[in-house]
Structures are given as C-alpha cells and as structure tokens.
Amino acid sequence: MNIHTEKPDFEGLSPAEIQEINAEFSHYEDKTAVSIEALKIVQKHRGWVSDECLVAVAGLLDISTAQLEGVATFYNLIYRQPVGKTVIHYCNSVTCWMLGAEQVRERLCRHLNVELGEMSADGEYTILPIVCLGACDHAPVVMVGNELRQDISDDAVNEILRR
Predict the structure, then answer these.
(1) pLDDT at 2
(2) Which domains does the chain have, with CATH numbers?
(3) CB under 8 Å to 115, separation ≥6 — which residues?
(4) Long-range contacts of residues 92-97, Cβ cutoff 8 Å, at least 24 apart
(5) pLDDT tens, 105-138?
(6) Percent of residues, the chain, with pLDDT higher than 90
(7) % of the chain exceeding 70 in pLDDT
(8) How does residue 158 score in pLDDT terms, banded at 50, 70 and 90?
(9) Which of these, 65, 50, 112, 61, lies nearest to 87 by C-alpha position?
(10) What is the Cα–Cα distance from 24 to 78, expressed in whole angstroms?
(11) At what angle do helices 15-24 and 35-46 cross, to 10 degrees?
(12) What are the b/e assignments for 11-47, b being 16+ CB within 10 Å?
C-alpha cells in the first residue's frame, strides 16, 4: 500500500479563501463543479487570479492546473492579470458597435489615460472589451464594476468619469 504523505499544494491561498472554497463544496456533487466559484473567491480577495493561486486552487479541487486554466480563460470575468480597482467592460457586440461602442471606448481610454487592457497609472481603472452584456435593446452598454449602464451617451460617459 502506497501512502501519499506529501502536503497538498494549497500554499498560495489564505485560510479565509480555503474556508470559503470548502464551504462551496456542499452546494455541488463534485469538486470540479466548484471551479468558477473558487476562482471568483480568489479574485474577490485579491482582485485577480495569479498563476500561484491557480495552481493552489487546482490542488484544492483535485483537478489539473491545465483544466482550471481552461475554465479561467473561458470566462471573461475572471482576470488572469492585475486589473484596476474598477474594471469597466464595454460591450463590443455588433449592436453596441453599430450604436457607438468604439466612441465610448475611445473617450473612456482618452480621459483615463489608459490603453485597452491596461491598468491606469493610479491603479484605479482597467478598460476591457466584453462580447455581450445582454442588453442589446439599450445599446451601447458598459459595466462599471458590477453595475450595468445602458444607453450610454456622451452625458452618461461624463457621469461615469465624474464618479
């Protein structure tokens, strides 16, 4: 009988993160199903999911790092690189694009002095595209943090920038 005595590789996670992830296990039949929730927990605590944290979460869930990386990169609300305190997603779907999404993006980037995907110098903002926010009847739309903003006009951009 071969006894596995190595310590599991959860070292990249805080006790609070491990406790929250373990609490999620009761909601699912197998650990793999906890993947997205576990990544969201790490991101809530750290702002993004580093390679070290990804490896630790994979160890805790008893799945391969490659499998968890596939989950993390599929969902565009899981950040695999540092982002600003406030992430602004602008919808670049066809409908939003036709109704001015590129102008919204250009104005936000210019005012915040940041390129798409970069973090502002003060660490406050990152602007990212998102395929669809599901509000095509109110295009163009953006999501500021977790708040959906619809019918984005110049005035709405000004309000976002004032906040």
Answers:
(1) 29
(2) 15-74 (1.10.10), 86-162 (3.40.30.10)
(3) 109
(4) 92/129, 92/130, 92/131, 93/131, 93/132, 93/133, 93/136, 93/139, 95/136, 95/139, 96/133, 96/136, 96/139, 96/140, 96/141
(5) 999 999 999 999 999 999 999 999 999 999 999 9
(6) 81
(7) 94
(8) confident
(9) 112
(10) 18
(11) 150
(12) ebbeeebbebbeebbeeeeeeeebbbebbbbbbeebb
Query: CA of 27: how far to CAs of 16, 21, 66, 88, in Å?
Result: 18, 11, 24, 31
Task: Give the model confidence (pLDDT) of 32-69 as tens digits.
Answer: 999 999 999 999 999 999 999 999 999 999 999 999 99
